[in-house]
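Journal club prep, shared notes

We agreed each person brings one worked example of a sequence with its structure written out as tokens. Mine is Peptidase. I'm keeping it raw so we can talk through how to read the token line rather than staring at a rendered picture. Sequence first:
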Amino acid sequence: MNTDLGGSALFYLVLLILPISALIARRVPILRIVLSLASWALIIGLLVIVVGQRERFDPYLQRIASVLKIADQTVVGRETRIRMAADGHFWARVTLDGVPRRMLIDSGATVTALSTRTAQAAALDVRNSAFPMILNTANGQISAQTATVRELRLGDIAARGLGVVVSPAFGDTDVLGMNFLSKLKSWRVEGQTLILEPHHHQDFT
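Then the structure, token by token:
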């Protein structure tokens, strides 16, 4: 009796497995395609997120961004557009007398400020002003020297003869201040994008 019950159970099990197997065999290729597409979409989505937040990660990810053309600074028509960084600030890629630098755009800074290292790299003629230059910063008052940048380029914008202050107290941070922004035709923030628009003549002094 046990043998008959075992055989019957096995028979019904086979009958159940056969149609299920046939059904799976038909659907597996479709499932594979769907899963493959979903996996690639997930990988690409994660890559875009990581590259978009690359300031938090290794600097080598900037190369990936350039390859994928995920630009944080672009020129559209006569406007230069800068996307907000992960730290909530706007950082511009500029050249100072041919030396590339990443500068913080700060409308609260009256004058453009450079680190000693940047001033040396650009070979600026740094000197003491006729009167002591004292600046009020978040860390208190600091003394600074002055210099003039022959040409600062940001996107299609070129500023010539731009006055700057230089101090080791700035650390490694370079700041674009209002003496640069005030020379533009306009500047505004739309969403998470800073838009800089020069006058009809792009170069200004």
